[in-house]
Specification:
The protein has about 450 residues and is α/β, with parallel strands linked by helices. It contains 13 helices and 22 strands. Helix 1 (about 15-25) runs parallel beside helix 8 (about 310-325). The longest helix is centred in the first third of the chain and has 26 residues, at about 80-105. It is globular and about 70 Å long. Bound molecules: flavin-adenine dinucleotide (FAD).
């Protein structure tokens, strides 16, 4: 330690960096951390947290409508975007302070500024250099807007959280979960939303039944969902934008938001110069222990482009800290990571999609259910809920769980534990349901929707 200022220097105080820094310091390490923008990183400032607050805000429109069937008369409604954004900003500032305190209380030395890697053991921040035995890159990712004429007129999710006004008309470009979530947010708050995606169906990687079901529900709510299309040029005309599509047609709109992917934040911070290998997507290449091609430089979180989710970055940080300062040799288990999409209705999923299950197992059984949630029997809302279980016939293990419906994320978190424990369909069936809930459906599914005798037969 004599030659080093720190045992570990972390670049980036986001989900992964803060956790790795705090836990390492708790294990007795001397830790420094640099943050150039905001404590808590993407999730706290321009990701999970503000996004969910906006989802809550946007869902009130439906809740007000739903109330009538239960006897409520809701007065004249008015939505005020600046109030929402001001309150959201206050909450984020509160969280920023908490992150600062967490680091301070753990004894982590915080440097506010952009850090660069000078060499395998040296970091530079605000003109000051520090020596560290190990360096952890936890710099996250950044949204990308494709290089089309007029791209400067488009925003990304980063800016969407700080707009001055709610646009009357919005185009969302993209087919990932962020695009889907923002389509729901803007629509619920009263904007006229068109979502454009260049592929044949959005939410690639999710179960096909889930993708179709959600698309139907979003269209029913009034979102103009268009697949196999893309913007070729954006023009500004006074206060409005004209989006030119591939087929030559134009859409006039007040806001164009791109959610077409995020790129790892690994360029321009001295990594390549220090000998750290990046892959074709610009992500830091690491081994099972998060070690890069330079033995003293590690990386976790979105910058390694494995599973870009906050709890994954946090879990990677915990593994790294335990290995580095407690002599453990653990690796991260990426199997059965549960996830939610805060679309309207929500998606919750854990385990394999049907397509993945068909590839991996010789025989699977599928159980599905689609129904009107109890609440909507009186509300008159025609939103439906969808549920799906995928079972390996040989072992009877439930290997895939998918839901589209209110609070799907909450249900999925619990089922995620069951899948992690290797629960079988018989054990699901032996579990007593909670009545009346939507989730009880998962322990009462008896009829196979379709079964697949074996892969060869299916092919
Ligand atoms: C709109 C949106 C919604 C999302 N919703 C969810 C969700 O619902 N659930 C979920 O699990 N995940 C969600 N995510 C993903 C989640 O935010 C990320 O997976 C998570 O934040 C990754 O953590 P990280 O530590 O790798 O990086 P980040 O949290 O991005 O932190 C990286 C930090 O490094 C800092 N930094 C970068 N370069 C430097 C430098 N050179 N010097 C100093 N500091 C630097 C950045 O300013 C940033 O604060 C969402 C993301 C977005 C964009």
């Amino acid at each position: 330690m004599a030659d080093y200022d720190f045992d570990l220097y972390v670049i980036g105080a986001g989900s992964g960096g803060v956790r790795a820094a705090r836990i390492s310091a708790n294990y007795g390490a001397k830790v420094g951390i640099a943050e150039e923008r905001y404590l808590g990183g993407t999730c706290v400032n321009v990701g999970c947290v503000p996004k969910k607050l906006l989802v809550y805000a946007s869902h009130f429109a439906e809740d007000f409508n739903d109330a009538a069937g239960f006897g409520w008369t809701v007065g004249k409604r008015k939505f005020d975007w600046p109030t929402l954004i001001t309150n959201k900003n206050q909450e984020i500032e509160r969280l920023n302070d908490i992150y600062g305190r967490l680091l301070g209380n753990a004894g982590v030395e915080l440097h506010e500024g952009r850090a660069t890697v000078v060499d395998a053991h040296t970091i530079s921040v605000n003109g000051q250099t520090y020596k560290a035995k190990n360096i952890l890159i936890a710099t996250g990712g950044w949204p990308v807007v494709p290089n089309i004429p007029g791209r400067e007129h488009a925003i990304t999710s980063n800016e969407a959280f700080f707009l001055d006004n709610l646009p009357e008309r919005t185009i969302i470009v993209g087919g990932g979960y962020i695009a889907v979530e923002f389509a729901g947010i803007f629509h619920g708050l009263g904007s006229e939303v068109t979502q454009l995606y260049r592929g044949s169906h959005f939410l690639r990687g999710f179960d096909d039944d889930v993708r179709t079901f959600l698309a139907d529900e979003m269209c029913k709510k009034g979102i103009d969902l268009r697949f196999n299309t893309n913007i070729t040029r954006i023009k500004k005309k006074k206060d409005v934008y004209l989006a030119e599509l591939e087929d030559g047609t134009q859409i006039e709109t007040d806001l164009i938001m791109y959610a077409t992917g995020r790129t790892p934040n690994a360029k321009g911070i001295g990594l390549e110069e220090a000998g750290v290998e990046l892959n074709a997507k610009g992500a830091v290449v690491v081994d099972d222990y998060f070690k890069s091609s330079v033995s003293s430089i590690y990386a976790i979180g979105d910058v390694i482009d494995r599973i870009a989710l906050t709890p994954v970055a946090i879990a990677e940080g915990m593994v790294l800290a335990a290995n580095m300062f407690r002599g453990e040799t653990g690796t991260m288990d990426y199997a059965d990571v549960p996830t939610a999409v805060f679309s309207q209705p929500n998606i919750g999923t854990v385990g394999l999609t049907e397509a993945q299950a068909r590839e991996a197992y010789s025989a699977i059984d599928i159980y599905t259910s689609s129904f009107t949630p109890m609440k909507h029997t009186l509300s008159g809302n025609d939103e439906k809920t969808f549920m799906k279980l995928i079972v390996d016939r040989e072992s009877d293990r439930v290997i895939g769980f998918h839901m589209v419906g209110p609070d799907a994320g909450e249900t999925t978190q619990g089922i995620g534990i069951a899948l992690k424990c290797g629960a079988t369909k018989a054990q699901f069936d032996a579990t007593v349901g909670i009545h009346p809930t939507a989730a009880e459906e998962f322990v009462t599914m008896r009829e196979k929707a379709r079964d697949d005798a074996n892969k060869a037969a299916a092919d």
